[in-house]
Amino acid sequence: MSDSNTRPPAGLRPFLPSDTPALAAILSAAIFELTSEDYDPDQQEGWAAVVADEETLGKRLAGALTLVAERDGELVGFIALADNKHIDLLYVHPDVAGEGVAALLCDAIERLALARGATSLTSDASDTALGFFQKRGYVARQRNSVLRGAVWLGDTTVEKKLTGEGVGG
């Protein structure tokens, strides 16, 4: 891909069921290419197994407020907000990691949640994503061990209070 300085910004749109295969591929690529410093191969395999069934993933995404990021006609990331209070899924393609796509998605979902009456948001942040959320004002509330297949993964429940000024980066 070209230099991030010359790339057009990503645009956001609502999730469509036909997006599911591309989003499953983004989720899998992000797990295997971005998390190796924090999770071993067995943990990555167990985690990625959540996308093995695209039908289940599609239902999960359709049951949440899900936004997708698109650049040059290709999907590059997505975020799913469950019950207007929990960021259930947030993934970007490894090719655009660090280019602001995740921040764009978070900004939008925080604003939408606030407009819909939410006073705070939570997420169960992977060790890889924890720093991203903390830079956005999310505070660690609880350390978790999550069983994925036959392996345990660690993550951290984080929370951010939403106010008009506190939304976004």
From TrEMBL:
A Pfam family that the UniProt record links to this protein: Acetyltransf_10
Keyword annotations from UniProtKB, A to Z: Acyltransferase, Transferase
Sample GO molecular function, one term: acyltransferase activity, transferring groups other than amino-acyl groups
Leader sequence segment: none
Family annotation (InterPro entries): Acyl_CoA_acyltransferase, Bact_Acetyltransf, GNAT_dom
Membrane in keyword set: no
Superkingdom: Bacteria
Key word Transferase present: yes
Occurrences of domain N-acetyltransferase (ranges): 18-165
Family matches, as PANTHER family: AMINOALKYLPHOSPHONATE N-ACETYLTRANSFERASE-RELATED-RELATED
Name of protein: GCN5 family acetyltransferase
Species this chain originates from: Ancylobacter defluvii
